[in-house]
Design a protein that fits this description.
2 domains; 8 helices; globular
Length: 190
C-alpha cells in the first residue's frame, strides 16, 4: 500500500468513503467494516492501527446508546438498528482515514494537495498529519498515565478516559498554537 501513488490512494479513500455513506444495509456495512479490519491486520505498515479498534468500539457503543436513548421518533428495534449502522459507518470511515494517513508520508501529502490554493492545501495536509500525530500522543499519554497507576480497563469513563482526553486536548491545543505561530512567522496570514 505504501508503494501506491498518493493520488491513487486518495481517490480510493474518497470512493470508499462515498460508498460507505451511501450504504443502507447493515449487512453490507458490516462486510465492508470486516474487510477494512482484515486489511489493517494484513498490511505490514498498519499493524499498529489494530489497537485503534478498541477505542472505536467504545465510541461505537456510545453511538448505539445515544441512538437508543434519545431517538424517540422510531421504535426501539429501529433505534438499535440505526445505532449499529451509524456506529459501523463511523468505525469504517475512521479506519479508512487512519490507514490512509499511516501509509502516506507528509511530503507525499504536500505534493498531492499542491494543485489547491495554498491555504486549503495547508489545511488538508495538517489535518491528515494530525491523525497520526494524535494517535502517537495517545500512546504516550496512556503509557505515562499507566505508570502513574491509571487503570485503563475500568468501565467508568471518568476513571479511564478523562485522564487520557484532558492531556491529549492540552497537547493538541499547544501543538496547534505552535503551528499557528510558525505559520504567522512564515507569512501565511492573509
Amino acid at each position: 500500500m505504501n508503494k501506491l501513488f498518493p493520488a491513487l490512494k486518495l481517490i480510493g479513500l474518497i470512493s470508499l468513503t462515498t460508498l460507505m455513506l451511501w450504504l443502507k444495509s447493515w449487512l453490507l456495512i458490516s462486510l465492508f467494516l470486516a474487510l477494512i479490519t482484515a486489511a489493517i491486520f494484513f498490511l505490514k505498515t498498519t499493524k499498529h492501527l489494530g489497537s485503534r479498534i478498541y477505542t472505536l468500539l467504545f465510541i461505537s457503543l456510545c453511538i448505539v446508546l445515544f441512538q437508543v436513548l434519545f431517538n424517540f421518533h422510531v421504535n426501539l428495534a429501529t433505534r438499535f438498528t440505526l445505532g449499529i449502522i451509524n456506529a459501523e459507518k463511523i468505525m469504517a470511515l475512521s479506519l479508512l482515514a487512519l490507514v490512509y494517513s499511516a501509509t502516506t508520508s507528509f511530503s507525499e501529502l504536500i505534493k498531492l494537495f499542491a494543485f489547491l490554493p495554498k491555504n486549503i492545501s495547508l489545511m488538508f495536509t495538517l489535518a491528515f498529519s494530525f491523525l497520526t500525530i494524535m494517535t502517537e500522543e495517545i500512546k504516550k499519554i496512556a503509557l505515562v498515565q499507566s505508570a502513574r497507576g491509571l487503570n485503563t480497563k475500568s468501565l467508568n469513563p471518568k476513571k479511564s478516559i478523562l485522564p487520557l482526553i484532558i492531556p491529549l486536548l492540552h497537547r493538541s491545543f499547544m501543538r496547534a498554537e505552535r503551528i499557528a505561530v510558525v505559520l504567522q512567522a512564515k507569512g501565511y496570514n492573509n
